[in-house]
Amino acid sequence: MFIGESLDSDPMGTESILQLSVMGVILIGLGLAWKWELTGGIIALAAFIGLSIINPKVLHFPMLYLYPGTAISFIVFWVISRNSTTKNE
Question: What is the DSSP string of 26-44?
Answer without folding.
Answer: HHHHHHHHTT-HHHHHHHH
